[in-house]
Amino acid sequence: MRVSCAWLKEYVDFSLSPEELAEALTLAGLEVEQVEHLAPGWRGPVCLGRLEDVRPHPDSDHLKVCRVTVGAGRSVQVVSGAANLVPGAGVVVALPGSVLPGPRPIEATVFRGVTSEGMLCSAPELGLEGSKDGILLLPGDVQPGQDAAEALGLDDVVLEIDLTANRADCEGMINVAREVAAVTGAPLRPAAQVQPPGATAGEAFAIPLARGGAAAGATARQSPAVQVTVQDHQLCPLYTARLFGQVRLGPSPLWMQNRLRAAGVRPISNVVDVTNYVMLECNQPLHAFDFAQVSQGHIVVRRASAGEKLQTLDGVERTLDEQMLVIADPTRPIGLAGVMGGANSEITGTTSMFLLESALFAATSVRRTAFRLGIPSEAASRFGRGVDPQGVVRASLRAAALFQEIGAAQPLGPLVQEGSAPSRPVEIRLRPQRVNALLGTGLTDQEIRTTLQRLPGFSVAPDAGALRVSVPSYRMDISAEVDLVEEVARLWGYHRIPSTMPAGVSQRGGLSPKQRFERSLRDILVGLGFSEVMTSSIVDPGDFERLRLPDGHPWRRAVALLAPLSADQAVLRTTLLPGLLQRVAYNQHRQNDDLAFFELGKAFISTEQGQLPEEVPLLGLVLTGRRDALHFSRKPEPADFFDLKGALEELLEAAGLSASEYEFDPLTGHPSLHPGRSAELRLGSVRLGYLGEVHPQVAEAFDLTGRVLVAELEYLPLLEAQQRDLRVAPLPRHPAVRRDLAVVVGQQIPARRLLNILREAGKPWLEKVEIFDVYRGGQVPEGKKSIAFSLTFRSAERTLTDAQVLHAQARVVEALREQVGAEIRS
User: Fold this and answer.
1) How far apart are CA 662 and CA 685, in angstroms?
2) If you ran DSSP here, which 8-state letter would residue 118 be given?
């Protein structure tokens, strides 16, 4: 919120400097981010003037010779090439000796035989926002010779306030003035004083109100009928409309333009400027409809129809749905309620009558509509955070007075009102002991009462050992006792509250078992050479097609966002795979090909209608590129399935699981993985996840090159299964005996099963078993494979004899023969 100090003084008589005021407001909870001095970017005589005469240059087809009055009895001749020179208009004149932004001073100059005694300035030449195609035109009632900086409000200071979500009331200048009065003790001027409920509507202006229906014939002047119908009072509790005629569209007065510019709003025309001015002043958005475009003079406030179209004032055609509230006539929508008007009813140069809207719309409805359609308008910002219900009529009457004051329009009838402002008689019982308990202070009842009475519109009365506080309607952020405690704290002064040590029993913080386990997984994977990545939980629904997922696949049960930012960020992820593959593609496109990534994140699986989605913690890994770094001593080889499988084995065993507790089984039919190069990981009967090479079609869809290996598993079952106790063994005292064993088994028998048989049959002396060769070829029958194992035997009590080792080896051979039909390969 940009607050002009000059404008602020119209409502509150404060004496602090802008910097002192900024500090006081910040200490009270309204953080002032910047104090901006609107000092002009020029030096020397730059003043206002009035164009008295404009003639063509005698020796040029594009230059004009102007006679400009620049003071009482003084005029100068200026040559200009601007195309918007209008006799009678006000202008800004840089006289000889002045220096505008830039290095060159203004001097009297001869243009093709005609002397120019200065320069007519455009907005950019003065350091202001505006078009550079033409000079800055001001109303004709300017005071020639007045200093331009003073006239344009550039001697002002603007406070930029960063408002928190609960202080939406301070989006209006009057409410900021009330805050300044509360903080500094400065007196409020009448315009900002809080009126009793109902007083402003009936007493501020002697203008009759019409309750609903038509308002024709309500005044002596005959005017067209105006009718208002509200079909949804829940989304629009109160709607008022008033007809204005004798419209004289033109620029607004300079004082109004200056205040709008200081607030960051571009002046447009007197009618539009008044609506913006009242919005900034009263925090009540208004909108003006061209009455000629309102069919039958009938305003209908209703929900939109599904698929209904409306082109808004920004020129964009919007597709509406039945959750959106529109302002319509009997034939079509003409505005989005509380968000933006329609292009089909905007004020133009041919407008002779307009209808002024001032209404109260439900904040949730406005927020939803503005977000879904992507329209962050000033009106939507205010309605979406809540406006004063008692300020609707007051703002309409204030605008009517301004229209008449500046000669922009005249009212043609009474204010037509449909509905009523919700009464908000908020009375809160405040216990002084509760104030001191929460703040750690020792304030007396009188100090608390005096502090709250500094807030304009608040009344405080004793109530049986407590205080009864009545809250005005503009402070919609105050609804409970603790809110009043906050008001006491900030007005008393946060810096005056003593620092104390926290009371109560202290408790040492720590990590949960799940958090400790996740940290250990990260440490293990980093030690294995993987780097952690974090990808977005919001993904593209098109990823399902790129992953080759068939209809009905569990990964397609995605939770759709109600208001996605874009089409490719529309659903919550059901797998980590798309994000990991996109990270690989991103790196490969930048010639970074040797990659090992992991991610710990959640997938979201849709459940029954109206239920929260199931959140599944997952670990995802991806591996691609060379197995080892380049080195002259070895030939580079690409990483393959067994590299990823080995990394998972290391991870599982480092996490506390023994090799006999998990197994890898062949996996077929996974749509995203290469057939024959994939497996699933099981922990007993629990399926943890999968690993394998990405399917070639999936790799192409994600624009990947080379062989890419992925794995994804649920890791919480590992936490439940891991060994809790640390087991240690003494160093061996007796030598080991190593034997090699080669067996021929069926092609379909997994090596993991053979290892488990060997470990079980070799107890208690089989210390370690490793696979060192797998052979398929001419010396092995078709459909068979040869696997060679290295067996290490050791006893903790004695040195094993050859006979004992042979006996143990015979046991494992017999077990292999009985359980899988293995044959010894000689």
Assistant:
1) 9
2) S
Cis peptide before 764 (omega within 30 of 0): yes
User: Which pLDDT score, from 0 to 100, does residue 791 have?
Assistant: 95
pLDDT at 103: 64
Q: What is the DSSP string of 611-663?
A: SPPEEEEEEEEEEESBSS--BTTB---B--HHHHHHHHHHHHHHTT--GGGEE
Question: Rounded to the nearest 5 degrees, what angle is found at the Cα of 665, between the Cα atoms of 661 and 671?
Answer: 135
pLDDT tens track for 65-123: 999 999 888 999 999 999 999 999 999 999 999 988 776 789 999 999 999 999 999 98
Alpha-carbon distance values, 679 to 158, 256, 644, 663, 665 (Å): 67, 74, 11, 10, 5
For residue 161, what pLDDT band results from cuts at 50, 70 and 90?
very high
Cβ-based neighbours of 482, under 8 Å, separated by 6 or more = 438
Which are the contacts of 273, defined by CB distance < 8 A and separation ≥ 6?
252, 256, 257, 260, 267
pLDDT of residue 197: 53
Using one digit for the tens of pLDDT, what is the confidence trace for 732-779?
A: 899 999 999 999 999 888 888 899 899 999 999 999 999 999 999 888
CA dist 661 and 651 (Å) reads 13
Q: Give ∠ CA 502-503-506 in degrees, rounded to 5.
A: 85
- C-alpha 150: how far from chain center: 39
Cβ atoms within 10 Å of 169's Cβ, excluding its own: 26
- Long-range contact pairs involving 627-630 (C-beta distance under 8 Å, separation at least 24): 629/594
pTM of the model: 0.68
User: Which 8-state DSSP code applies to residue 503?
Assistant: P
- Tell me if 303 sits within 8 A of 326, measured CB to CB: yes
Q: What angle do CA 275, 279, 25 make, to 5 degrees?
A: 150
Round to whole Å and give the CA distance between 763 and 776: 30
- 606-661 pLDDT, tens digit per residue, is 877 667 888 999 999 999 999 877 767 778 889 999 999 999 999 988 887 877 78
Token pair listed for 336: 């989005």
519, two tokens = 């940290």
31: phi then psi, degrees, rounded to nearest 5: -70, 120
